[in-house]
């Protein structure tokens, strides 16, 4: 059995257990060795081993049963013991309750006894105290203070307590009979009060916080307690303003006092509030007055900058002081202090702001026009100007002489940035300095000034000048600078719109002024777009000039011999010189339009220009007679025009030039194929007169054969 036990190892694996048993059995090896493999012997060993395992299992089973019985017995004993302990615990708890009731009874008796003793002792103490006060009062009656408490300077605290009580008693005495003693007590009261304040002052200079606390506690019941606080506040500020920044000094002073005032006074929040009030009403108010009064009438710009800076720094200081305990409503307290300093300056702030902004904006514009040596012309307003605008939009009549601007747009990014920067600063000051109820109204006033000088006096003036400077359609080499005006006006308005959203909207978003500002902005946009449209309008504006310029190029560069060369076999060019120059000009203008506008405006203008461009080329081609080689050259020209039309990226324009290209094929197609070409996809829907007009341009049109085939 011992051998069998040795074969068990942890963890138990059956395969390994059989393997170990086989190797320990003689004749159980499978690879030769001293003894050959003997299956019978191995079987016998297995049978014997199984019997041993069965015996071992029975023995272990008996041991397990014995242990289970023992465990059950011990569990019963433990349960019995737990029940006995529970009974003991209940008995102990009952004893504890009885003890607690007894203690409560004794405590009640003790409290009752204490109350009885106090009821007896309190009158006795009062009688003793009254006796002492009568004794001290007699000394004042006799006119000679003999008690040690009055003669010993170290007992000033006790003397102060006594004299304070005597002073209260003296207030009840009739003046006619006790005037002498009352005056003596009052005199001593005053002397002790002065001594205590002097002692407090000396302790503060020595930095003895504990002594200051003792003296302040004694003075708390005296009339001169407020004088003690004043002395403390005054001495706290000695040497506190040594830097150039009074606001930083004030913040550091209040922070330092806040740390120690609780260790000295019983009402620290009141003392700290009084210190802050003293700092604001004396130090800060005098500093603000000094900084503002000297430039109030002489320099509006510096005055506004100083006012904004001082008000901002004062409110920042107030925000820091909000961290301290100043009583229940410290927000209102600090707001009143700030208002007391700045009220005289804030009452008429917006008048100063708007007056300065107007003069500054006018100066910026005038300086710009002076730098251009330009005398600004007056622009009409009202009914006459509106009538001119309508006539200009609907007719082809010139409204006054054209002005030569020499390519100057009279729009300046620098001027715009300066105006917007001035307005931005005005909005910031308005936000900080305006009363919340007046903020939307004040912001609207600033906005109207921006509209007046930026949108009307600068952008609108430049548009009016640009409109007046647009050359007539028959002028040669016209400088179509109005597109530059459009581009710059578009950029400037984006900057204007950004400032509207970033700086004005937050100030008026929750007020009725919002709709008023949006309406004014809408009117300005519509007015500008109307003038931009007028400048680029088909009748009187820039597109008319572009088409006129193309006409001049074609008239100057296109020759009749281009499409009817004398030597049909010696044509070396791919397209005519007129075509090259027109395409170069058109590409340049298309690029300029794309750079000058954005959104749907680009497509609208390019559509109009493309249609006019097609009409011009169509009518131009109708003026010539074409030989076979000339017709081929015309097709090449139209193909080049079509490439140019692709830059427009307008499907309709490209379709028009595709059709024109197909029409030009009629100039070269063999007479026998004319009907087939005319019935093709691109020409089938065209009017027969249009087709006939192009066929008539052929040099061989009058031949009977061609006329017969086309009829």
UniProtKB/TrEMBL annotation:
GO terms for cellular component: exocyst. Pfam families: Sec10_HB, Sec10_N. Residues 50-88 form a coiled coil. One of its GO terms (biological process) is Golgi to plasma membrane transport. The keyword Repeat does not apply. It comes from Pan troglodytes (Chimpanzee). One of its GO terms (molecular function) is small GTPase binding. It comes from the Eukaryota. Keywords: Coiled coil, Exocytosis, Transport. Residues 39-147 form the Exocyst complex component Sec10 N-terminal domain. InterPro entries: Sec10-like, Sec10_HB, Sec10_N. This is Exocyst complex component 5. Belongs to the SEC10 family. The keyword Coiled coil applies. Residues 158-710 form the Exocyst complex component Sec10-like alpha-helical bundle domain.
